[in-house]
Amino acid sequence: MEIELHEELQRYRKEVLELSQGEAAERLNIGSSSLSNYERGIREIPSKMLPKFKEVYKIPTKEMNRILYGENTDEYNSDPMVLRESFENEETAAIIQMLDEHPKLKRVLASLTYQTDKRKEKFSNQVSQLYNFIREW
Description:
This protein starts with a helix and ends with a helix. The chain is built from eight helices and no strands. The chain has helices at 5-17, 21-28, 32-40, 50-56, 61-69, 80-101, 103-112, 117-136. It is an all-alpha fold.
């Protein structure tokens, strides 16, 4: 039985990335209802969204080919755990690059390593609230 594109992308989001639908929609810069409709096959995924899914989900090219065309990838491991590790490595590299490009942010985060767990939690909550405020603004 052949799995449809929308089912594959949903599986990838859930099993590989372990992202909620809301978080994935935010990263894709679309509404949760749009992503839900794509994943359930109610709306067809526009071809212009495919590169965005590949970029945001950090889907390796061979895995994307398998998803799109049902290609056989015997030489490539599409195990969710291996793909998740690859995604996390790319995400970590992007975070490190961002810290290198923003030394003030790096210093603030470095200073947190010397704080108590309670202060770290308080800082994290404040940053999360600021993020939500900016996002809603």
